[in-house]
Amino acid sequence: MDGVRTELLSSKGISSVLFLDETDRKKILKLEKEDEQKGLVLCGKKSNVGIRQVLGCDLMLCFLTNSEFQWPKNNVKLMHGGKLIGKDVLDPVELQGYLDDPKYRVLGNIVILNKEFLNIRSSTDPIDMVINAHPFLSIEAVYGISGAIIASPSVASDKYIRSLSQDGNSAYIGSFLLGFNLKSLEYTSTLAAASLKSSVY
After folding, report:
1. Do 4 and 64 sit in the same domain of this protein?
2. pTM for the predicted model, two decimal places
3. Which residues fall within 8 angstroms of residue 168, CB to CB, at 6 or more apart?
4. Tens digit of pLDDT for each residue in 95-137?
């Protein structure tokens, strides 16, 4: 676990690392289920596929980021009938291009095909916002670790995670959950402080 923590803190834009116990895991699981059940006012359904994958890993922890952290691309996709109709855009120049194009509607950093959005708004078949997990290659390279992935928590889970942190850094931008698996059972005893998988999403 020390190797994972050291690698995270040496990564640009990561300000602190938090270890999660089983109570934390169950709380986050509860918050994420509630978040999906509430849905979204504009987009209808929400499917945080990434969080489900992280919660299914052998171990899980989280880290807080600042403005220097490079957020993964294609974090959010808006789907309808199996068709991609929108996505998140992080690059400000690219986002401005969409703002200037009447074919698109921009909500924050989410870009949606305007025609599709208007048609679906009058339909009983809602848009599905899918939030993906992403591989974390530097953690994947740590000895004894496999299947390292990160995912964005809901607003409620993010708030809970921040409540666990002693980091008063005003440059806080967001949080990620990190999940990974063990290559061999011999590592279990050395990683006992981390949250072992025991819940199904």
Report:
1. yes
2. 0.79
3. none
4. 999 999 999 999 888 899 988 877 776 566 778 889 999 999 8
